């Protein structure tokens, strides 16, 4: 029976069907692209709605008397500098410390006396308003701190110079200083008179000093200038001045930009839960703000990070949500101040969310006085997309597991059935084409069942034809015997009548030929009968050790001129065997060994149990070895390597019958060349 070839896993049906199941990944791929298109469509729709909302707010502000957008308090040219004043939730304590300004400190502005001088004095500006007061907190970097000797001589030490709008276009200037840390003195620049409406606190810092001021809002009239005067030697001229702007005239003062109460009251009526509204003047300075954006959610899960990597959303610029800045800029804002509404997307730094920013111009009497910026986060769309994608991946994973598992089970069952079919018919037919056993076809109503039934029908026809060929020897023997008997009897009569004639030698030769033909037919008949008897032979349980010992004793009696040696175990070896067939097989091996053994040498008979569920019956003899090219052919029918020197008929059927008997018992037969002879082995499966 041919050995089964073991296929590599990549060549099996299971692997191929598993590869086919990978086509299921097209489901999440198509779903992802669908979700991306959906997200793009939703974002475009959101942009249109946001632009319409900005237009509605701009029209509302324009119809509510837009004069507050124009700054008419200063009729001169536009100021050279603008300072943003933040709205405060509560008035800070004037103590010179910055604890209450921590939230606003990242939005402070710095002014230096000399940008190229690393040691130049610098001023850090931060301002806010609450009610009718403006609160200013400035930090001055000054490595050499000089205090004046008295509040009447503030100009002889480090001090601040405050300029406020005055009459006739000329500013009013005040010196702010102190002889020691604590409450500051505010005196007029020229008359040195005290100004009690302005108060503040002076505290030293590691880099210089800090001053916290409170100024009545009406005094500023929306403009001021604040300068830090650096004195490194008492009474000497200033070595540097860090100023927010010029201070000689009103037109040089910095402009204070702060949200107005009128704008705030209008914006507070809008939806501020998910939108942020910002009103800008023509200088893009914030004069009103209301609302907040959606907070970004935590996306630290593996699936969320995977979605973030696959996300197609991207902004052209990154920003930190534009929080708290006093002046906005962007493509959409510039276009709106040019009279055209626009929308733009910004990427939030450190997030995959976007800010949609829609800007519309505030038009009053065909003049663009400002802009309304409405912002909204795409977090809602991102969460919707993420949630849908998570469900899609979960469903796809479940489908992949179910479908892939089903295909794998189907492939495994299919492979099992095909393997069983192959093994069944491999066992049914021997390597030399003989039918070993009957095959029962399955009743499965599919292609494999139909294939099994077709194979079974073919095997039945082959069995019938093989039976016909096997019975041919018997029929030929029967047909040949009669004419041979007639020839033999006739020749015998002729021989008797012409015993003294010259043709007696030919008559003897003819008689010898008829005897040889009769012997050939007899041997063929024996082989045919043995093959047929194998199908009906019954096995019985016998002790192989005792059985072989009895055979060995019988051979010693039958062939007294030959020495026999038996190497058998003392333990019984019980097996299911056919005694007649096993004795025939051993008889033929012993007869073969007697014919070829070296005179004077012993024939050895062994029975071995190798503990691997196999028993080996060996017959050894010293004598000529067998050519390696003939070893694989000895056990086939009609194969004989004898030289016929004994004038006997050898058809090569003896070892063939040995192989048939071994295979009938589920074993095999082989021959091995040894150093000084030959060993024939019958291997039988052992089941205790």
TrEMBL record:
One Pfam family from the record: HATPase_c
Molecular function via GO: phosphorelay sensor kinase activity
Keywords of this entry: Kinase, Membrane, Phosphoprotein, Transferase, Transmembrane, Transmembrane helix
Domain Histidine kinase span(s) in chain numbering: 475-688
Top enzyme category: transferase
Annotated EC: 2.7.13.3
Keyword Membrane: yes
SMART domains, per database record: HATPase_c (SM00387), HisKA (SM00388)
Catalytic activity entry: ATP + protein L-histidine = ADP + protein N-phospho-L-histidine
Regions crossing the membrane: 15-35, 392-411
Record protein name field: histidine kinase
Organism in which the protein naturally occurs: Candidatus Thiodiazotropha taylori
